[in-house]
């Protein structure tokens, strides 16, 4: 009998449409990796060696099918001038957007991902991970899509008003955010990492399908095209409730669409023949506050709902695995893929 597939073999075969031994499992282990290594989140998000070591430790602990490097969704905006607040042991967050008035956008430029802000932390960490474990598992790096970066440059509430009152400014911010994301995509690819787009602000809680197609989708499409041209599968994650956006997201043709607060069965019926679905065990209620049995039940339900989706299914957390999630709950998620997602 053939030995079990390695995570890299499993994902490579899955994305190529070839037979695999079981459903892939990719919990979005991001800042939680700091807990596995036993370091503060503030050290993790500022030091590429620590970030890489944390993800190696998490991979050795859990054996997930893809590593997902990440610190926060404002890292690109920070490199362009937005000021962040740095809690000692939590992820940084926006304190002061840099575009307070329309004239502030005049001097914005796409940052150099190898020199500006903390972007080099991502790039060097991915390079270190490729060297350390790249033969065993794909290294992915999550970063904000242009709409979310524009929100960190302008402030989410202000940008939402700009969509109606000053759409020209909104598009200017989106264009420079796209340029920044393209530059980071190139640097991450050169470091051997799969670029993964996350766009939490572009959820159905903020944008209608019409606004999503006007202000978010046109700036995701060129990124997906560039990621494909570089030889990687485009993976898109959008947080929150997205059922109104299913078709608009599928139109972007990601290789995998990571869903958060969405009904996987409904997603399979509506877009399962167009895109691989990924999700969506509840982060807070289940992975943080539940038990391993709770995780097992919810993961089993996810596989039952979408495991036979026509374009494939990846078992995952609905959003970021909480920093303080009990390790036994993450182990239970991996084990559920092995128990209920085995291909006969």
Explain what you see:
With 344 residues, this protein is of the alpha/beta class. It has one domain: TIM Barrel (Alpha-Beta Barrel), CATH 3.20.20. Helices cover 48% and strands 12% of the residues. It is built from 15 helices and 9 strands. The strands form 2 sheets. Strands 1-4-5-6-7-8-9 form a 7-stranded parallel β-sheet, with helices on both faces. Strand 6, helix 11 and strand 7 form a beta-alpha-beta unit. The longest helix has 24 residues. It is globular and about 55 Å long.
**Shape annotation:** globular
* SSE-based structural type: alpha/beta
CATH architecture identity? Alpha-Beta Barrel
Which value, in Å, is the CA radius of gyration? Answer: 19 Å
What number of domains?
A: 1
How many β-strand runs?
Answer: 9
Helix content: 40-55%
Strand content: 5-15%
Global mean pLDDT: 96
CATH class: Alpha Beta
